[in-house]
Amino acid sequence: MSVKIGMVSLGCSKNLVDSERMLYKIKNKGYEIINSAEEADIVVINTCGFIQPAKEEAIDTILEFSQMKSEGGIKKIIVTGCLAERYKEEMAELFPEADAVIGIGCNEDIIDVIENVLAEKRVVKFDDKEKLRLTGERVISTLPFSAYLKIAEGCSNFCSYCAIPLIRGRYRSVPMEEVIEEAKWLVANGVTEINVIAQDSTRYGIDLYKEYRLPKLLKEICRLDGVKWIRVLYCYPERITDELLDVIASEEKIVKYLDIPIQHCDKDILRLMNRSGSEEELRALFAKIRDKIPNVTLRTTIITGFPKESGEKYVALAEFVKDMEFDRLGCFAYSEEEGTPAAEMDGQIDEELRQKRAELIMDMQHIISERKNAQKLGEVVEAVVEGYDESNESYYGRSAADAPDIDGKVYFTSDKELKVGDYVDIKITKNLDYDLIGVVVDEFTE
Predict the structure, then answer these.
(1) Contact of 26 with 114, CB cutoff 8 Å
(2) pLDDT-based confidence at 171, cuts 50/70/90?
(3) Which DSSP letter does residue 130 get?
(4) Are the CB atoms for 197 and 149 separated by under 8 Å?
(5) All residues at 6 or more sequence positions from 42 whose CB lies less than 8 Å from its CB, including other chains
(6) pLDDT tens for each residue of 294-321
(7) CATH number of 4-130
(8) Mean pLDDT, to the nearest integer, of 129-157?
(9) Which fold has domain 146-374?
(10) Rounded to 5 degrees, what angle do the CA atoms 336, 338, 340 make?
(11) Angstrom distance (rounded) from CA 50 to CA 354
């Protein structure tokens, strides 16, 4: 009887790629991969430990599977990922139900770990995370036409609020030829949408080549036959060069979408965050982007309630968001993370006030998003089919303006049978808060 192994991947898309690489090793060894982790013999929990809500989700997940194990369902639990890496031996002590607690540097050894726990040996192991192989075969766990392409590991920005450098180590670019080989492999396996990711994509190449290589890398990926959409995620504003913007503007396969986490607009707050820039520089940057890339979709992320964020500075941030009219925006209340400089700063803001400030900005963004969606009525947008909703009797998917997992959907009808991964033109007939409704364009009648 084969051993059934399930994977629970928490947190970001970069973590998901790590999970997919472990899944390949598991599958290649001959174990049975099961989609429903609750029905597995062994469950591997790849945790996130970035901010408090993510840590709570990871802990709740471990406790949930521990309960299943105590009831005779799950036989073995393996915990890895950022939370395990961040708290190491503490995790092993806190969760005796876990048969293995390993750091991200041990992901390459997942088969050895599985074999040890099957032999009733508990594994607590933390290898050098900066020696972890940066590429490798994967089991694509997303929809078959779309995948993430991780071009770097770690981060060297050292934002004062962020624990990623502590958890993942310094920034390490994947050599360009290896990135291209992985992109070729993805395309050969049916992927038509490649989402380029790193903690800071715009930093790509500086450690290996002494220059920023993202524009050159994107051009090389564009040369691959079979790629339909290429999306760039997580760009730092200070490293968005004219060269990068020109490549995005000129290359047909690169969707006109930029995710630029600014975190704040106030110069003093940015300095406390160990980030550069100012409101004036950010306004100039976004004006330049919109000038160079007409109809660009702009996504950003901001933090409210950072230490010393006065009422005046918060109001300035809210006014900035209102003026910029970002197409997509995520706003998060500041989270004090152990081991980060920001957690030791004076001027900490009350937790309730942090949350209230975030909610008010998201309420404002809701109005902006609804208005922007209303402006799309009557437009024709290209969308990729993600599935069929039986209850609504309609297909659903995403436009080029929507990144997977984080943005809205397009719901549409079609008299023709469509397949997941088909690209179709949709006439927009109705807008919702964050989603759009339409019909396949060659079937549209006034």
Answers:
(1) yes
(2) very high
(3) G
(4) yes
(5) 3, 4, 5, 6, 74, 75, 76, 77, 78, 114, 117, 118
(6) 999 999 999 999 999 999 999 999 999 9
(7) 3.40.50.12160
(8) 92
(9) pyruvate-formate lyase- activating enzyme (3.80.30)
(10) 80
(11) 18
